[in-house]
Amino acid sequence: MSSDPAPASSTSTEQHSETHQGLEIDPKILADIGQLSLRARIVADSALAGMHRSKNHGSSVEFAEHKEYSPGDELRHLDWRAYARFDRYFIKRFEDESSLRVLLVLDCSGTMNYPAQTDERLTKLEFAKTIAGAFAFVLARQGDATGLALFSDRLNVSVPARARRGHLQELLNALSSVQASGPTHMGAALDSLSRGLAKRTTIILCTDLLDGGLEALPRLARLRARNHDVILFHVLDPDELEFPFEEGTLFNSLENEDHIRVDGREIRSAYLEEIARFRGQAETASRRARVEYHLARTDQAPGPLIARVLAHRARNRSISR
Predict the structure, then answer these.
(1) By C-alpha distance, which of 9, 17, 2 is closest to 119?
(2) What is the pLDDT of residues 209-261, one digit of tens each?
(3) DSSP letter string over 60-107?
(4) Which of 185, 243, 245, 292 is the least crowded, having the fewest Cβ atoms under 10 Å away?
(5) pTM of the entire structure?
C-alpha cells in the first residue's frame, strides 16, 4: 500500500524506557540510524539487556544445544564460557551432534517497501531486516549456525547456515543489500523451503502476509510436520492497521502500476473490519499450523518483541524445542 500524501506517525518520546521484557528504543531513533549493522546490534543489546534484568526468566537465552554435565560426560567437552556466565557446568553439543540450525527468511516483495519516505519510522523491509540482524547478533554470540533466505516471487537462499568466524559480517552485508521489489508468491517460496531443508531448522519468518500470504500459511504446517520450528513476525505499518487517511487519497500499488483514488473517510470503517479479520485469520492459521505468531508494528520498538521470543525460548531451554 502506498499513498499520497502519507500522514505523520506519532512516536514515543521516551528513548530508553525499560520494561520487564526489554529496553525500548524509540523507533524514530532507529529510523535515523542508516547503518543496519549498528541498528541491529543496538536492538540485540536492548533485547538481551531486558532478559538479564528480568527476575522471571534469569539470564539464559541460549539458542545452542547444551545439556548439564552429568558424571561420565567427557570433561573436554565442558563449555567454560557457559560456566563463567551461569556458574554451572554444561556440555556443548557439536554441530554434527545437534540438528539445530536457524534460517532467517525475509519477504522482500514490493509491498514491504511501505512507507516509501518518512522520518518517523522504518519501512517494513528495513524493520524486518533489523529484526533479522538482531537475531543474527544473538545467534552469533552463542555460536549457532545461521543462514538467510529471501523471497518475493521465488525463494533465494542468500547465505547458507554456518557458524564460522566472519559469518556474521557476511550475513549482515547480505541483509544490508536487500531491496524490496516485485510480486509476492509466498506459497511457492514456502514449498521450495520445505523441499530444501535437509536438517531440522528453526525458521524466523518476517513478512506482511499481503497478496496471498494468508492463503500460504497452511503450508507452514508441512514444515512443522517435518520437525522444523517456525516463528512468524507479521510486519505491518500503523497506517495499514489504523487507516488514518482523510478525504481523497491516491493509493499506488508497490508491486505493479495499478492505482486507485478513494475517499478515506468513506471506506475507513470497512477497511478496519477487513484488517481485523485479516489479522485474526493470520493468528488462527498460525495456531493451527503450530507456528509462533507475533505482530510486529513498525512504530513500536523491536527490542521488547525480540526479548519476548527469547524469554519463551529460554523457558523451553532451547530455541529449537
Answers:
(1) 9
(2) 998 889 999 999 999 999 899 999 999 999 999 999 887 777 766 666 677 88
(3) ----S-EEE--TTS-GGGB-HHHHHHHSS-EEEPPGGG----EEEEEE
(4) 292
(5) 0.78
